[in-house]
Amino acid sequence: MKITPIDVPGYERVAKAEDPESGLVAFIGVHNTRLGPALGGMRMWKYENEKAALTDVMRLSRGMTFKSAVARTGLGGGKSVIIGNPRTDRTPKLFEAMGRFVNTFNGRYITAEDVGVGIEELMSVRKHTRWVTGLSREQGGSGNPSPYTALGCFEGIRAAAIEQWGSDNLKGKVVAIQGPGNVGFPLGQHLVKAGARLVVSDVNPESVDLAVRELGAQAVPPEQIYDVKCDIFAPCALGGILNDDTIPRLKCKVVAGAANNQLLDENRHAAMVAERKLVYAPDYVINAGGIINVSLELEKGGYNEAAAVRKIHNIFEALRSIFETARRRGITTHAAAQEVAEANLAAAPAAASTTAAAAS
Ligand code: NAD
Q1: What is the pTM of this model?
Q2: Could you identify the atom of ligand 1 that is nearest to the CA of residue 290?
Q3: Which of 125, 160, 183, 220 has the least C-beta neighbours within 10 A?
């Protein structure tokens, strides 16, 4: 396998791996390990070219640094991407080669599931490195993170409701969920239990049917979700959905959902959302439940679900504080979240980046 280091300013270590025998072409990005080893998922995607894959690994690993800094997981930010079609190119050999690549980071990068990569693939990765999290409970891991992401998201919606309406009572509130999938569906369950009514859209008809049948949701076609008259818009599908086209169309008062990278142009679109007096829960704060859950695997004594759930409930207070800062200082909630992340990073002792301390 050929491993080529790539010098990227602001990133601790970025490398490319090429393994002709298995067909692997992949990148690992370690953005920052000031708060601990860099943990972030492994993504497989049909990138158009290597430049697109490298751009993605940089964007995603940087995002993980901020997410973990605010959630105080004791972890840094990293991510890996494999170029390939997850439908046709997922071979055990390819993921074993990826395991060898991950292992060259000696625990400074720790991997997990992400788009296109599931537990089966992680088991192949695991053959060549121990730096794998998110395996099933039977295999000693913390299991599927999605229900925990959904729980954190629900806590975040309660915090946003208090900010907008002075109460976290969701009875009768209408919530529009874009993408009732692995996170959106269990989020819908929490919301229905709290008395909310749901409107959903999804490009997958099966997800729509399930939400209609099980959650009593009303369905609308995918493009119409931005125009739905509702109290809360919960994006749980795609990134970049808060943009010049969609923000003026929104008929909600709160935007709070699990999708990553919701703001197409972070600062400008955060300002547009604030001008419309919408309460926006910064995505990497509200969707940290999954990383919090997985981070507990690295604690002394191993994974403990009760401890994970307790920590996920902190998302409520974290967002309350971010909303309060934004209001008091007249800055966007996105800017307030960035400040918290940067302050937590700056407060870390520089030596926290060694891997063994956090992982053993
Ligand atoms: P998922 O694939 O299970 O669900 C996403 C759903 O969105 C699917 O049902 C899909 O069909 C639908 N969708 C795709 N394009 C759409 C469109 N144009 N309009 C409407 N629906 C569309 O994924 P997930 O694991 O539930 O993750 C959802 C989002 O949350 C992603 O952005 C992901 O990065 C983010 N996230 C997930 C987790 C987690 O624990 N799973 C953690 C943090 C962030």
Answers
A1: 0.92
A2: 40
A3: 220
